[in-house]
Amino acid sequence: MRFNVQSLRAEKGATMLLNIREELAPIDLGRSRLRFVGPVEFVGQATNTGRRIVVTGSAKGQAIAVCDRCLEEFTMDLATPIDESYYRADEAPADPDEDERTYGEDDVIDISSGMEQAFVLTLPIRIVCRDDCQGLCTRCGGDLNKGECACPADD
C-alpha cells in the first residue's frame, strides 16, 4: 500500500485522492493469524499540512480467521477508518508525536503497517464465527456446534 508524495510536498494544503487495492500480508495475532481473501481496499486522501502528510480514509477487506470458541476457520468482513500522520525522516520535528510515522527520502509512504494496526484494533476481544457458537467440549474437545458429545453431563 505504497504511494509517492513528491508532487504533494510542493505545496502546503495540496491534496491527493487515493484509491488503492492491494494484497496485504497475513496479520499475526499471537493466538492465530488473519489471512486476507483477495485485495484490501483503501479509499481516502493524503494532505500536505506543512511538514507532515496526513492520510485519512477507510480500509476494508475480508479475512479468514480462527474462531476462539470452536477453532474453526471462517471468513469475516473487516472495515476500519484510517487517520495517520507522516513526516519525512530527514525532516523530523524536534519533538515528534509518538503516533506519527516516518517515510523516506524517496517520498514514498507505505500505509500497510498503519492499516494492519487499525484492523487489529477493530477486532473484538474474542473472535467468534457466530454469536451462538457453542465451542468445544472441555472434556473430549468435540465441536458442540456439530451436536452433543458422549461425555457425561457435569454435576
Shape: elongated
Structural class: mainly beta
How would you characterize the largest beta sheet? 6 strands, mixed
Strand portion, in percent? 35-45%
Please compute the radius of gyration using only Cα atoms: 21 Å
How far apart the termini lie comes to: 55 Å
Instruction: Report the average pLDDT across residues.
Output: 90
Please describe what this structure looks like:
The protein is mostly beta strands and 155 residues long. The chain has one domain (2-146). It contains 1 helix and 8 strands. It has one helix at residues 112-122; strands spanning 2-4, 15-22, 27-28, 33-48, 52-66, 73-88, 101-103, 108-110. The strands form 2 sheets. Strands 2, 3, 4, 5, 6 and 7 form a 6-stranded mixed sheet that branches. It is elongated. The mean pLDDT is 90.
Features:
6-stranded mixed beta sheet, 155 residues, two-stranded antiparallel sheet, mainly beta, single chain
